[in-house]
Amino acid sequence: MSRTETNQQYREAVEAASERVGRAANKAADVLRDSSWGTMKGLQNYNEKVLEIAQANINATFDFFRRVVAAKSASDLITVATEHGRRQFETSNEQAKELAALAQRLALESTEPVKEYATNTFDKAA
Known about the structure:
The chain has helices spanning 3-70, 74-125. By secondary structure, the chain is mainly α. It has one domain (36-125). Helix 1 packs antiparallel against helix 2 (74-125). The longest helix has 68 residues, at 3-70. 0% of the residues are buried.
């Protein structure tokens, strides 16, 4: 084989490798973009839930103040405060569970495309 033929084969091999690397880089960029989009949507859902919870807590606080003002005796006031505290404790626990579930789902869904791509890429390489 002549030097010219060897150089030609080398150049073709380099060009083919370069094309494969370029396709892989483009695919990786697509996966990251899709993952980022999913993360953005998940964050939006999380933020919407936080605002919903904040609104519910504000409403509960105003309701509590209305009931405090309407209390006719000290025992009524204690009853109102006790009931409000109990309800808010239960509500806060449920709200925390909801937010934790959303955060967990966000973490899983935002990393899944990258994990799947990496697994497929390494499986092909092996």
